[in-house]
Design a protein that fits this description.
Structural class: alpha+beta
Strand content: 5-15%
Order of helices and strands: HHHHHHHEHHEEHEEEHEH
Largest sheet: 5 strands, mixed
Number of strands: 7
Radius of gyration: 34 Å
Strand order of the largest sheet: 2-3-1-6-7
Number of domains: 2
Length: about 375
């Protein structure tokens, strides 16, 4: 996890994974329910109305294609490309079946054929998650339909007038569906951008872009739980800008904002990608260092104090210097929740401030619990008073 809170690409990747899972689940049911229902309805029509036997055979084939594509959605390596391929294959199969059925019943008329092709296009818009996939599926459907209207249907006895009638109904609908596909893609991008912006505002500090107080506290709980579960080292740094109020009174709010931005920029650069960094208060920050022992955390804290103390910040043509005090602590076996660790790291910060600021102090580990014989001695001396 990046020290500058969740980055935009990370949030985008998580969002796309979540969206892919939901779309895949929706597509499975669209393929199964839509395809199977249509194929079964065609079979019923074939045996009740007296359609040619080839129509019934085509309906059985369409049902088999539907079940095969439904099984394909459970492929082990199913990826986003699959979500685009399946609607394209379904569009080709359905269009060919519609053309074949209409050729076998010329009395159906061009309006009904155009209505069926339009319904198929609407299914494509619902089943395809991307604009590219929708356009490809619509293009395949259009090519199969045009080939059937001008090549297959005339050979089956459909007049050229019926073909022209079908195109007059269907082409405007096809153009409208393409426009709807572009509109849906625009709405998807707008919703995605809005979601990212809302997540950024909910988890990031407005001035610095790092995690805000609520988010860094949540990350602390998660990292603490993970470190305890897998018995991995975990350390924290609590950093405070020394004399924050005095800096603001002397230099003004703008200069202090520059100092905070320079400070957070340095921290983000010096920390690893797996570390997390957030702002607790206007002048206090928290750094989470997973898989880091106390020695490494104290070394980093000392380096930060040294580098930041020697840093010159240029504000309105004048040089501003500032120092930081840092408390460091490492996860101990007696820590039961993240608050135990945070109390120690805050105590280390207070010790650093009391010792003169501009330095790093490693908080001592908690005292071990007394042994059983020590408890007995305390009871005998009247120090331990059981309830």
């Amino acid at each position: 996890m990046s020290p500058s809170a969740d980055s935009g690409p990370a949030r985008a990747s998580a969002y796309h994974r979540q969206r892919f899972s939901k779309t895949l689940l929706r597509q499975r049911w669209l393929v199964l329910c839509g395809g199977a229902a249509y194929a079964i309805a065609c079979l019923w029509i074939a045996f009740r109305v007296g359609m040619p036997p080839s129509f019934a055979v085509a309906s059985f084939v369409l049902l088999g294609v539907t079940l095969a594509l439904y099984g394909l959605t459970y492929a082990k390596n199913a990826g986003p490309m699959l979500l685009e391929i399946i609607p394209a294959l379904m569009a080709a199969a359905f269009t060919a079946h519609v053309i074949h059925g209409t050729a076998g019943a010329p009395q159906a008329g061009g309006a009904r054929l155009a209505a069926l092709l339009t319904l198929l296009g609407l299914w494509v818009l619902i089943a395809t998650p991307t604009l590219r996939g929708a356009l490809v599926a619509l293009a395949i459907s259009a090519m199969v339909a045009l080939a059937g209207i001008f090549i297959y249907m005339p050979d089956a006895g459909v007049t050229a007038f019926a073909a022209a009638e079908t195109l007059s109904y269907w082409l405007p609908a096809l153009a409208a569906m393409v426009a709807v596909a572009f509109h849906l893609e625009h709405e998807r991008h707008s919703a995605f951008d809005l979601r990212l912006e809302l997540e950024r505002r909910a988890t990031s500090d407005n001035l610095t872009g790092v995690s805000n107080r609520a988010h860094i506290n949540l990350l602390t709980q998660n990292e603490f739980a993970r470190a305890r579960r897998y018995r991995e080292p975990f350390s924290c740094l609590m950093i405070e800008i020394d004399g924050y109020d005095a800096l603001r009174e002397r230099w003004g709010d703008t200069a202090v904002s520059v100092v905070v931005q320079v400070f957070t920029g340095y921290c983000v650069v010096v920390m690893r990608h797996c570390d997390s960094f957030g702002r607790l208060d206007p002048h206090r920050f928290l750094a989470l260092l997973p898989e880091t022992r106390g020695v490494g955390a104290h070394t980093l804290a000392s380096r930060m104090c040294r580098d930041l103390g020697a840093l010159n910040v240029l504000v309105d043509g004048k040089t501003l210097n500032f120092t930081v005090s840092i408390g460091a602590a490492e996860l101990h076996g007696t820590d039961r929740w993240s608050g135990d660790l945070l109390r120690r790291v805050e105590q280390g910060l207070e010790d650093a401030i009391e010792r003169g600021r501009g330095q790093a102090v490693f908080a001592s580990p908690p005292a071990p619990p007394p042994l059983d014989d020590e408890l007995d001695t305390m009871e005998d001396n009247g120090v331990f008073l059981p309830q």
